[in-house]
Design goal:
Elements (H helix, E strand, L loop, with lengths): L4 H10 L3 E4 L2 E4 L8 H15 L11 H8 L3 H14 L2 E4 L3 E4 L6 H6 L15 H10 L6 E2 L12 H14 L1 H5 L8 H10 L13 E3 L1 H13 L5 E6 L3 H10 L2 E8 L3 E2 L1 H10 L2 E6 L13 H14 L2 E5 L12 H10 L14 E6 L11 E4 L4 H9 L7 H12 L3 H26 L5 E3 L6 E5 L6 H9 L3 E2 L1 E2 L12 E5 L6 H18 L4
Parallel strand pairs: 5-16, 7-8, 7-10, 10-11, 11-12
Antiparallel strand pairs: 1-2, 3-4, 6-13, 8-9, 12-13, 14-15, 15-18, 17-18
């Protein structure tokens, strides 16, 4: 017999080891060999799967659950910790535990195949659409599922404001002078320490501060190639790689890429043996747009291939610190094995990997503080920067140095990771619920984006224009390749506050996608 919520509460108090499960009563049995906390965790996960606790809902506090189930606070704490490790719950500081099941979308994730790009080198031709898209992103009424940057509410704006004021007041002369390449030494020293987290052991003198990650990549491309050279990229590939290659006068060949483990090293080896590839450009941690994470062993094998064929690597690690695994103890253990805590540069022994990153995705895009470790091309990068932009803004460099020096950054990263991790299941759930039948989703292990494959008859570029008319931005998949293989795909930014407006915008996108899938204009 099903019981009402009020009746259930009465039973909880009178029969303390009984547990409500999808409207029925299930007993926690102290006589079983399985500890009570594991019994409780198992039954709570069942409740989440059957919808008793929907995604995004707060579950009862530890103390309240202890009262309801008639078990100790310690038992409930262990059960919640277990569910957090398994990905069913997430803890929000000073708020409690929330449901964040990531189990449902896994089946769709598995359906996304290895990409199949053109086998010939090509030139880049899609700059007009990118320019059009970027021009719209700062419009105040726009719901931003387009740019892969966190909403300003996710960023430590007040703290940065204080550091800007402090630097402006106490370091006025230094902040307003030229800061020539390679950049402010204090900041480079801090970066050298931080990069050890990814297995990179370098000296501050190996680092060059840049105007964001885009300049770092551009400088490395210019330093290691000549116009007309050929570079290998992922497929899908961050459209910035493609456009920067075009501005430098390079041709690209796209390498088949797995949406989970990244660039196919087998296909890369074949391409290296057939074509005069000068450079490999990729993101080993949480690639854009697919979110792929190259396992540690494959990162090492990538560097071995580069050594064998004597080519360089440009590694973009701009999302490397946004790992969802770092929000739980079990996740951190798994991350040690799957590549979240390492990059290809960590396996570089002769300076052929040019590592690039930035604070644009974690602190502020407007400060324009990035950096690179260009290895054997260090002097060429210094020369390129000295005679173009000199270096990043002196004020920005000192502000970021001041912020890092006061130990704010790691605390901020923990909160940022948690916010995005909590968003992920809600975005995925909305896409599954509202988008057309046959839609497939790649669920990443980090970063800010989900890669969505619509039914093939739904044109994503058409969806982009329809959505823009309704003040919603997204990025069509056609921008991430020089072929037409991703014309039915879209990239969505999940680093956007979850709200009724966000939910409704995804529902609108789903309805528009359904129209296109049905053949409506």
């Amino acid at each position: 017999m099903a019981l009402s919520g009020r009746h259930c509460d009465a039973v909880y108090h009178s029969r303390p080891l009984f547990f409500r499960r999808a409207g029925l009563m299930t007993m926690l049995n102290p006589q079983l060999k399985q500890p009570l906390y594991l019994q409780l965790a198992e039954q709570l996960s069942d409740d989440i799967q059957t919808g008793v606790y929907p995604v995004g809902q707060k579950v009862p506090s530890v103390r309240r659950m202890s009262e309801l189930r008639g078990v100790s606070v310690s038992t409930v704490s262990q059960a919640y910790a277990r569910l957090e490790d398994l990905g069913w719950l997430s803890a929000r500081p000073q708020s409690g535990y929330y449901v964040c099941s990531n189990r449902r979308p896994e089946c769709r994730h598995e359906q996304l195949p290895l990409s199949s790009p053109e086998e010939q080198p090509t030139e880049v031709t899609k700059s007009a659409l990118i320019t059009n898209m970027l021009a719209q992103l700062n419009h105040p009424s726009l719901i931003n599922f387009g740019a892969a940057i966190p909403d300003s509410s996710f960023l430590p704006l007040r703290q940065l404001q204080r550091h800007i004021q402090q630097v402006s007041r106490y370091q006025t002369r230094q902040a307003l002078e030229y800061q020539f390449a390679p950049g402010y030494e204090g900041l480079r020293q801090q970066l050298a320490v931080r990069m050890s987290n990814a297995g990179i052991h370098c000296h501050s003198d190996d680092i060059i501060i840049t105007n964001g990650c885009a300049e770092a990549i551009t400088l490395c491309l210019r330093a290691a190639t000549q116009p007309g050279d050929l570079i290998a990229v992922e497929s899908p590939c961050y459209y910035g790689f493609l456009q920067l290659a075009s501005t430098v006068g390079l041709k690209v060949i796209e390498i088949p890429t797995d949406p989970e483990t990244g660039m196919s090293l087998e296909a890369l080896q074949l391409a290296l043996s057939q074509w005069p590839i000068k450079l490999i450009a990729l993101t080993s941690r949480f690639s854009n747009p697919s979110g792929a994470l190259m396992p540690t062993r494959r990162q090492e094998k990538l560097v071995e291939l580069a050594n064998r064929f004597d080519v360089g690597i440009v590694e973009d690690d701009i999302y490397g610190e946004i790992s969802f695994a770092e929000t739980s103890a079990a996740g951190r253990k798994q991350a040690q094995e799957d590549g979240s805590f390492s990059v290809a540069k960590a396996f570089d022994r002769d300076g052929r990997v040019m590592y690039c990153s930035s604070f644009s995705k974690t602190l502020s895009a407007g400060l324009r503080v990035g950096w690179c470790v260009p290895g054997r091309w260090y002097q060429q990068v210094i020369d390129e920067q000295t005679f173009t932009t000199f270096s990043s803004s002196s004020l920005s460099q000192r502000v970021v140095h001041s912020y890092l020096q006061n130990s704010h950054y790691d605390r901020h990263l923990r909160q940022l990771r948690r916010q995005v991790t909590d968003n992920l299941p809600q975005f995925v759930d909305a896409v599954e619920r509202y988008f057309p039948e046959g839609t497939r989703i790649n669920v990443p292990k980090g970063g800010y984006t989900i890669w969505v494959a619509l039914p093939e008859q739904a044109n994503a570029e058409r969806l982009y224009y329809l959505a823009r008319e309704r003040s919603i931005s997204l990025v069509p998949g056609s921008l991430f390749t020089n072929s037409d293989q991703f014309d039915h795909c879209v990239r969505l930014n999940i680093a956007h506050p979850w709200s009724d407006q966000t939910h409704q915008a995804l529902k609108t996108l789903g309805a528009l996608a359904q129209q296109l899938a049905d053949g409506d204009p």
